[in-house]
Amino acid sequence: MRSLIRGIIIAVLSVAVVGTAFWGYQEHKEKNAILVNAENNYQRAFHDLTYNIDLLHDKIGTTLAMNSRSSISPALAEVWRITSEARSSVGQLPLTLLPFNKTEEFLAEIGEFSYRTAVRDLDKEPLTEEEYQSLQTLYNQAAEIQDELRKVQHLVLENHLRWMDVELALATDDENADNTIIDGFKTVEKTVEGYAESDKGIIFSGMQKRDENFKYLEGKTISKNEAIEIAKKYGRENKGDIHVEESKKGADYGFYSISYKDKNNVEVNMDITKKGGYPIWFLKNREVGKQKISLNDAANRAIKFINDNNFESMEMFESAQYDNVGVFTFVSTIDNVRIYPDAIKIKVALDDGSILGFSAEEYLSSHHVREIPKAKVSEAEARKEVNPNVKIMENRLAMIMNDLNEEVLVYEYLGVLGDDTYRIFINAISGKEEKVEKLKDAEPIYEDLV
Amino acid sequence: MYKNPLPTKTIGNSKISNGRVHRMINRSKWIKIFIGIMVSSILLSSEHNLHEVSAFSNQVIQKGATGEDVIELQSRLQYIGFYNGKIDGVFGWRTYWAVRNFQYEFGLKVDGLVGKKTKASLERVTKYHKSYVHEQINKGKRFTHYGGMDLNKQTAPKPQKQQKAKQKQENQGRTPANTPQNQGSGGQSQANQAPPQKPTALNTPGGFSQNDIQLLANAVYGEARGEPYVGQVAIAAVILNRIESPSFPNTVSGVIFEPGAFTAVADGQIWLTPNETAKKAVLDAINGWDPTGNALYYFNPDTATNKWIWSRPQIKKIGKHIFCK
After folding, report:
1. Does residue B16 carry a pLDDT above 50?
2. pLDDT in tens, B260-313
3. Percent of chain B beyond pLDDT 70?
C-alpha cells in the first residue's frame, strides 16, 4: 500500500518536473526568439545607416563632379532623400542615452542645404563659389564619418557584437564594459563635433534657430517680489502660499516660475521673464463644467483680456472649440498688416468664460517696433501668381517668417480648391510664391464610424 | 434598438393624414382628395416650421464652434445648396465660406458670424428637419439635407453594418401607399426635448490627427501620470520640442518610440489607457503652451541612473522632473 502511494507520488512529481522543464524550455525559446528579433531590428538599422552614409558620400561627390545644372538639382534631391533615410535609421538605434546629437544635426543640416539648393532655380541662381566650397567640405566630412562607421561595422561583423549589449551597457551606465560599438559611435560624434561652425560656412546661415532669448524685451530686471506682484494680477485674489523659483543656469533666458492656488483652490502656474517682468505663459488647471456660453462670447472675453493686459492692436485670427474649452489665437497688426510671428494664444473656459491660460512666448520673442516695407508688387499682380484654379475668397497684407527664417511682407490669400481651403502667401516685394498651406478641417470622430 | 422612439413622431403625423384621406374617399370626389392632400401637407409642413423656428439658440455662432447650433446651421445652408460638405456639427472652413456666400447673396454684412440677422434670414428661406437629421446622425448614416428633394433618397445605410429593417418616414414626399405598416404605433415623441445632438467631428490642431494626440496622451500618461497638470503639459511639450529639433526624428511616433528615449515605452506603461487629464495636457502643449522653456530632455533626479543626463544644462524643475537642454 505504502509503496503504491510512494510510486504514485514519484510518478506525479516526475511528470511535474518534466512538465516544468518542458515549459521552461519553451519559455526560453520564446524569449530567445524575441531577443533575436529585437537584435535583428537594431542590426538592420545600423547597417542601413552605414550604407546610407556610404551612399551620401558618393552622391555628394558626384554632385561636385557635375557640370550641368539640370543634373545637379536631381542629384541634390537624392542627397536630401538619403540624409532623411539615414536620420530615420539613427532614430531606430538605442543611442538616445549616448550623446549622438551632433551627428544627427549634421545629417539634418546636409539635408536642409541640399533640399534648398535642389529646389532653387539653378539657371537663375547658380551655385556660388562659396557653396561649392561648402559642398567640398561636406564631402570630406562625410568621408570621415563613413570611415569611422565602417570601422565599427567591421568590428561588429567580425566579433559578432550585439546591440542588445549596447543597450544594456548604456542603460546601466557601466563604465567598465569595454564596448566597441559605444566607443566607435563616440568617435564619430567627436569627429562631427570637430567641424567648427566656420567650416560649414554660409550653408547653414538659414538654419540659425529663431532667436529664443527674448532679445526685443525692454525694461529692467525685476526681483522675486516684483514677480509675485505681477503674478497676483493674473490670478486675482489668493491667500495661500506663493512659490517662486528662479530658472536654472541652462535656460535660454532668465525667468521666474510661480505657482499658487487661487481662491477656488485651483492650481495656477506661470512663468515671468526676469527682464521687464513679462508673463510668458500661465495655466490654470480646473475641471470645466458644461458649456454655458458660446464660442463667440468666449472670444469677446479673450479680446477683453488682451485689451486689459495692454497688448496693442491685436486681432483674432483663429478660434476653435475643443469640447468645453475655446482656444483663440491673436496676432498683432500694424496698419492692417497682420504680423503672424507675433502670436498670442488664449484659452477660455466655456462654462463661466474665465481665462484658463495664455501663452505669449512667440509674441515676446518676436514683437518689436517694425518698419513695414512698402509693397513693390501690386495686389493685382500678386493675384496673378496664385494658381488660377484656386478661387480666392479673402486677401490681405501680412508679415510672415519664410523658409529662410526672414520676416517678409506678403499678400495673403485665402482660397478654395475643390473642397479644401488654402492659405497662399505671395511675396509683396518679389512676387514669389512664399508658402502654401492647406488649412485643416474638422476630423470625423472615428469611434462613431467604426 | 433604444433609438426606436425617434421615428414615431412622423409615424404619428402620417396616421392623422391617412385618416383624413380615408374619410374623404368615403365622402366625395377625387379632386377633393387632391386638395385635401395638398392642404394637409401644407398644414403639416407649416406646423413643422412653427415647431422648429425657435431652434437656434441665442448665441452668435462663429468659426471653430461645435454643437447643435452648427448642425442646424449646416443643415439649413445645405437646404438651399450653399453648403455641400458633411453635416458634422463643426464650424470649419467649408461652413465658413457657405455662411459668407449666404450673407453676400442675401445682402447681409459679410463677416462669417452667424448672428441674429443671418439666423432670421436663414430661418425665413430654409427648413430644418431636425428629427430627420438627428436620426441620421444617431444611426451613423451618410446623409444630405437638400431642399426640394425626397429626404428618403438622401440617406445611405451605414457602410459596415446591416441596414435596419425600419424604413424612415418624413413629411416630405410621403404617399398613403407606404404608410400602412406603421399604423399600429402612435403617439408624438418630442424631438425638441431630446438632448442636444453631439457633433460627429472634432477640431484638431493643425498638423496633428486625433490618433497622434492619442499616442501623445499615452506617452504622457505612461511617463507622468502622477505629476501635476503642468508637469504633464511639460512632458508633451518636450516631445513636441524634439519633433522640431534637428537632432531627433521628425514625427510623433519617431520621437516616442526611439529606443531608450522614454522609460514608459521601454517597460510598456505607454499602453495604459490615458485619462482625460493627459489628453488635455497634450492639447495644451500642441496649442502652444510650453512650460519647460524649450527643454529637450528631462529626468527624475531620484531615479536617474545615467550620468550623462546630469551634464545637460538644466532649465527648471516641475514636479519631480528636471527639464534640460
Report:
1. no
2. 788 888 888 889 888 888 988 999 899 889 888 888 888 888 887 677 788 888
3. 70
pTM for this predicted structure: 0.79
Residue B6 — pLDDT band, cuts 50, 70, 90? very low
Residue B138's closest chain A neighbor by CA?
A: A448
Q: How far is the alpha carbon of B187 from chain A, nearest alpha carbon, in Å?
A: 30
Residue B291 contacts A where some CB pair is shorter than 8 Å:
yes
Helix (H) or strand (E) holding A329: strand A325-334
Q: Do A393 and B100 touch (CB under 8 A)?
A: yes
Of the candidates A283, A421, A440, the beta carbon closest to that of B204 is on: A440
Smallest Cα distance from B25 to chain A, Å: 47
Q: From start to end of A265-324, where are the E strands?
A: 267-273, 279-285, 314-322
Domain with B118 in it: 54-160
Chain A: nearest CA to B56, how far in angstroms?
A: 12
- If 0-12 CB within 10 Å is exposed, 13-18 middle and 19+ buried, where does residue B70 land? buried
Residues A111, B155: Cα–Cα separation, whole Å: 50
pLDDT per residue as tens digits for the range A55-77? 999 988 888 888 777 778 888 88
- The cell 499602453 sits on which residue? B271
Q: Best mutation site among A101, A185, A327 for testing chain B: the one with the most B CBs within 10 Å?
A: A327
Q: Specify if B215 maps to a domain.
A: yes
Q: Could you tell me if A10 and A139 lie in one domain?
A: yes
| Strand A337-349 with A391-401, pairing | parallel
Percent of chain B with pLDDT strictly greater than 90 = 6
| Distance from the A10 Cα atom to the nearest Cα atom in chain B, whole angstroms | 41
Nearest chain A residue to B245 by CA distance is A105
Provide the residue range defining the domain that includes A391: 379-438
Judge whether B19 lies within some domain.
yes
Task: Look at the block and give the residue holding cell 519617431.
Answer: B254
Within 8 A of B210 by CB-CB distance, chain A residues are: 443, 445-446
On whether any CB of chain A is under 8 Å from the CB of B100, the answer is yes
| Stretch (H or E) spanning A417 | strand A407-417
Number of domain units in chain B? 3
pLDDT at A448: 52
A450 part of a folded domain: no
| Average pLDDT value for residue range B88-93 | 88
| A308 and A250 within one domain | no
Give the single-character DSSP code of B270.
G
β strands within B28-152, DSSP E: 142-143
Span B168-186, average pLDDT: 38
A chain contacts of residue B200, beta-carbon cutoff 8 Å: 444-445, 448
**pLDDT, tens digit, 9 for 90 and up, residues B23-76:** 444 555 555 555 555 555 444 444 444 344 456 787 888 888 888 888 889 888
CB distance from A347 to chain B under 8 Å? yes
Mean pLDDT within A82-99: 80
What letter does residue A340 receive in the DSSP assignment? E
Is position B61 within any domain? yes
> Taking a contact as any Cβ pair under 8 Å apart, which residues of chain A between 106 and 165 contact chain B?
108-109, 112
The answer to whether the Cβ–Cβ distance between B61 and A259 falls below 8 Å is no
Confidence of residue A171 (pLDDT cuts 50, 70, 90): low
Pair B145, B133: CB distance under 8 Å:
yes
B279 belongs to a structural domain: yes
Of A349, A369, A389, the residue that ends a domain is A369
pLDDT digits (tens, 9 = 90+) for A259-296: 888 777 788 888 888 888 888 888 888 888 888 888 88
Q: Using the beta-carbon criterion (under 8 Å), do A252 and B307 form an inter-chain contact?
A: no
Residue pair B233/B217 in contact (Cβ under 8 Å)? The answer is no
Chain A residues in contact with B113 by the CB 8 A cut-off are 296
Min Cα distance A361 → chain B (Å) is 8
Whether A322 and B203 lie within 8 Å, measured CB to CB = yes
| Domain-terminating residue out of A275, A301, A332 | A275
pLDDT in tens, A380-389: 888 888 888 8
One-letter identity of residue A303:
I
In a domain? residue A447: no
Which chain B residues contact residue A249 at CB under 8 A?
313-314
Same domain flag for A126 and A42: yes
Euclidean distance between CA atoms A217 and A280, whole angstroms: 12
